[in-house]
Amino acid sequence: MRITLVEGDITEQRVDAIVNAANSSLLGGGGVDGAIHRRGGPAVLAECRALRASRYGRGLPTGQAVATTAGDLPARWVIHTVGPVWSAAEDRSALLRDCYANSLRVADDLGATVVAFPLISAGIYGWPVEDAVGQALSVLRAATPATVTEARLVLFGADTFRTAERVAGGEP
Length: 172
Known about the structure:
Layout: E1 2-7, E2 17-22, H1 31-40, H2 42-53, E3 65-69, E4 77-82, H3 93-110, E5 114-117, H4 129-142, E6 150-155, H5 158-168
Parallel strand pairs: 1-6, 2-4, 2-5, 5-6
Antiparallel strand pairs: 3-4
Helix pairs in contact: 3-4, 4-5
């Protein structure tokens, strides 16, 4: 699987699946989650509400992943995953890595070939960018998915992109 670093807006990626750094409610929020819900439109929210009414009444657990339609986004699916909130007192990095691994598994189950990931937990959840990139790349580099041929790490802002390039060693 090829790993590509891209500076930009994840809602503009023309891919099979876009990964959403969701909150556990699945009902939208700020940051990436809010942008995906706004751009995806009512179809994404309707499927998220159906998931809450059936399988995830208490919300999607941290590290898990589930797919919905992409609605008006330039993708077929949105894969929602809930990242952990950063804690200096508790190592939650396994949960962060689970977000990437479980999202890839869901993408494979869907038959997706190109998947766009945000930098999960690095926004409002406070995960340090450098470590968040390292966690993401450790999972993506070790993965051997059945159908996914490209994992795109979409980084918002020039500073975040430069950090990701540095952590990746210039070659992802």
